[in-house]
User: Fold this.
Amino acid sequence: MELIYILIIPLVCAGLSAMPTKRRWYPALITVIGTLLAFIEASRVALEVSSVTEVVAIKGWVSCDALGALLLLLISFVALTSAIFSWGFTGKVIAQNRPERVGRYYRRFNLFVFSMLAVPVLSQIALVWIAVELTTLLSVFLVSFPNTSEAFEAAWKFAVLTCMGAGLALFGILILYWGVTVSGGETFTWSGLVEAAPKMPPALLQTAFLFILIGFGTKAGLAPLHTWLPGVYSQTPSPVCALMSGVETSTALYAIIRLAPAVHGIHGGFPEQWMLVFGLLSVGLAAFLLIQVKEYKRLFAFSTIEHMGIILVAVGLSGAGAYFGASYQLLTHAITKSFCFFAAGATLRLTGSREIVSVRGLIRKSPFVGVSLFLGALAISGAPPFAVFMSELVILKSGISNGQYFSVGLLALFVVVAFCAIMFHVSHMVFGKVTDHSQVSALPRSYAIGIGLAAIPVCLFGVYIPGPLLNLLHLAATLLGR
Amino acid sequence: MLTTNSTILVLTALNALAGGFFLLTAFALIASRQSLACLKAFIIQSLLLAMSALLLGYQNASVSLLIVGGITIVSKVVLIPWLFLGTLAHELRTRREITQVFSITISLLISLVLVIFAYFIAVTLLGASPKQEATINLPIGLAGLFLGAYAITVRREAVPQVIGILAMENGAFFAGISIAPDFPLIAELAVAFDVLLIARIMGVLTMKVHQHTGTTAVGEMAVLREE
Assistant:
């Protein structure tokens, strides 16, 4: 039943926050409570899944296994921190005398959260496609929320490119369905697909995989179809960025890597090679583009492309160790990247500038924001002892023990380049000489609470992962292999 | 027996005719110079998709395909044009030449290459898993998908780009009705809803882009330079 609650809660919140009210903090409170409830339910699902392998609400339609539960947990956690952070963000909107926009923001926010939570919860692949498409359609007006011409341009590019990708993925899914019926499979669910896959004609499986990889890859921000992503993340409100970067890209990637066990080993590892190629291309391109970046939100946007690439490479490397690395990286990226965007949002609020060059000496202006941004940069670029470092280490180690030296060597090189680029830019922002002596605006309390809450797993998971979570990661990893 | 055989032959021939015209409308989407012409081509294309679904449904006595045909007519032939004319009437009626990145001749040549590419993919798929009904629908649907994607990338105006997205879905389903005839109905309904949502949201977005940037030549927006 938890799964049904998880789907209903954000819908109810969306309805409640759309109601006209005199109290402007009311939709914010509703959303925080709703996401907290969703997070509690998701934790219960995550605990339950380790004992029963699959939590079923409606057999064949709504169910969730370990990989889905991991994603569910991440989405609901980021949604919670983002909802808290949004409180301060919408406070600014009220200050601009547009109170009616607050309700609209929260209605869209909740619907967006709903569409993302639906992806891991639905078990019919056709419905997963629709849920992924809905994550695009329901976030378009969140991207354009600032109501500037740049924001509309970003929203347009985002919607058109990802819808185009969805069209390609739809064709892939239809072929997949064809393959399942040809091989006598009965249900078109993830588990049904894995069962039917060995009897499916490899040509169908391979073509379907390519269409879905390119289609959903567009949405996950994989190169060369990533071009919408940096512009969108630079314009979108930071709490929405945290959701989009931390978990929306992961939901699209989830739909790709769920195919990994089905396509494993066909045509002498053809799909794995494609994953490696696309993954390494994304990591490499992002790493070198990070060097010349001019805005700090774009910096984290390119880092998102890099991390999506790393996860895909990990799945492409294949083998139990690499699969564990992939699910681990899914976790570390979601928690760390959302934290980074909160820190970036706080920086934007303080300084009012998106440019890297115009932010200098942040730590002197506001020690809290300066430290958070620096911590976020260290954590996301993979410095020890943060969680991203650990997960990247797992991936590299398993690749070496598999003997895939070339791919691992390239991956390590790109990761180091990205590390240097991110640290170069952010250390200038944080420690550079203060050039602009204007008074900084005060930080809303909800920003501090959101950042503080998001910082807990970022700092903790590098040195200690709670037993049940580690167990969940291992279970999720086994689902990526055959 | 003879009558059944000839009935099937007639149905197959009619379906092939629908397929041929479907491909023509996909070309028309690329060649047309006016937004309204694009929309008209899309409506005709959707009608042909519905016709093919009804023909295949009748031929295979498949109720779900007949329903798909009905859903297509309601959503794509009636509701989407209605939504478009509601939100974008002005945009559609202005007789403005809509430009492309390439000239129309070059675009048509590239489209031809895409159709041949689609045909080769379809042949490989059909070779791996032969299916009688799909010999017409699969290559043409795939070609429709590619031409829709191509229209999105070369068009500079907002409305033709949105129609390109919808045409991609048409292409996918033109293939889909032959290769996945018993696709879950609930998914079909959800996709129809999704397509309506695309039309609505993109229509509103087009309007807002027009309000804020003063143009709908989205291909020329380049404030957010790609790095």
Notes: Chain B has one domain: 2-218. The first helix of chain B runs from residue 2 to 31.
